[in-house]
Specification:
This protein has 231 residues and is of the alpha/beta class. Helices cover 41% and strands 16% of the residues. The protein is globular and about 45 Å long. The two termini are 15 Å apart. This is Orotidine 5'-phosphate decarboxylase.
Length: 231
C-alpha cells in the first residue's frame, strides 16, 4: 500500500454541506485534526469548487467526489477543466470509456483519478433492481480489474470489498472507502459499512467520514479519535 507519512491523511472529512461559508467554518473548527477534505455534489453545486484552491493554498488536500460519467469527450474536457483547481483526488464512475477519457483529460497533472465501483448505498437487492446480473462483490472485482488495466490511480469501494479489491489491483493502487462509521454511531443510509479500525485492518488507504464528524458537537475531537483508531 502507498506509504502515508502523516496519519491524518488517511482520514478524509466529507464536507457534505450546502453553504461554502459553513464549510469553511467547519474546517476552522476541525483545525489541525484533519488534513484532507471531500467536496461532493451538494457543496460543489453551491459554489464549493471555488473552495478547492483556497484549501489547497493552505496545504490541505481536497477530494473532489463528482463521480463523472458521460460521453468520452465530455468527461475528458471536464477533467481537463478541473485540473487547474489543485485537488488531490477526483472520482469517475468505473466504466472503461469514462476512465480512459478521464486519464486523457488529466494528462500530466498530478490529480489522481479514482474509479467508483459500486456505490456503498447499494446492497444485492439494489444492484438487481438496477439491472446488474452479477453479485455486488463480483461486479466490484470486475470493475477494479478494468481500472487496473486502464491505469486508474485508485478504487473507491465498500470496506467489505477492500480485501478482494486489493488482491485484484495489487499493493500500489489506492483504496478509498466511504461508508465508514466510528464505533457506536448511526449507519444512516449506508448499507455496507465498517469502523475505522476495521477499515485500516482491511488494508484501506483512506476512509471518508461525514456526518459523525460534521454533526458532532466537537468535530475536531471526533476527527482525532478516528485518526487514532486507524493508527
Amino acid at each position: 500500500m502507498p506509504d502515508l507519512a502523516d496519519p491524518r491523511d488517511r482520514l478524509i472529512v466529507a464536507l457534505d454541506l450546502g453553504d461554502v461559508a459553513e464549510a469553511e467554518a467547519l474546517v476552522e473548527r476541525i483545525g489541525d485534526a484533519a488534513t484532507f477534505y471531500k467536496i461532493g455534489y451538494r457543496l460543489a453545486y453551491a459554489g464549493g469548487l471555488a473552495l478547492v484552491p483556497r484549501l489547497a493554498e493552505r496545504g490541505l488536500k481536497v477530494f473532489l467526489d463528482l463521480k463523472l460519467h458521460d460521453i468520452g469527450n465530455t468527461v475528458e474536457e471536464g477533467v481537463r477543466s478541473l485540473t487547474s483547481l489543485g485537488a488531490t483526488f477526483l472520482t469517475v464512475h468505473a466504466y472503461p470509456q469514462t476512465m480512459r477519457a478521464a486519464l486523457r483529460g488529466r494528462g500530466a497533472n498530478p490529480l489522481k483519478i479514482l474509479a467508483v465501483t459500486v456505490l456503498t448505498s447499494y446492497d444485492e437487492a439494489d444492484a438487481r433492481e438496477a439491472g446488474y446480473a452479477l453479485p455486488v462483490r463480483d461486479l466490484v472485482a470486475q470493475r477494479a480489474a478494468q481500472a487496473l488495466e486502464i491505469g486508474i490511480d485508485g478504487i473507491v469501494c465498500s470496506a467489505e470489498e477492500a480485501a478482494s479489491v486489493r488482491s485484484v489491483v495489487g499493493p500500489d493502487r489506492l483504496i478509498v472507502t466511504p461508508g465508514i462509521r466510528p464505533s457506536g454511531s448511526d449507519f444512516g443510509d449506508q448499507k455496507r459499512v465498517m469502523t475505522p479500525a476495521e477499515a485500516r485492518a482491511a488494508g484501506i488507504d483512506h476512509v471518508v467520514v461525514g456526518r459523525p464528524i460534521t454533526g458532532a458537537a466537537d468535530p475536531s475531537a471526533v476527527a482525532r479519535r478516528i485518526v487514532a483508531e486507524m493508527a
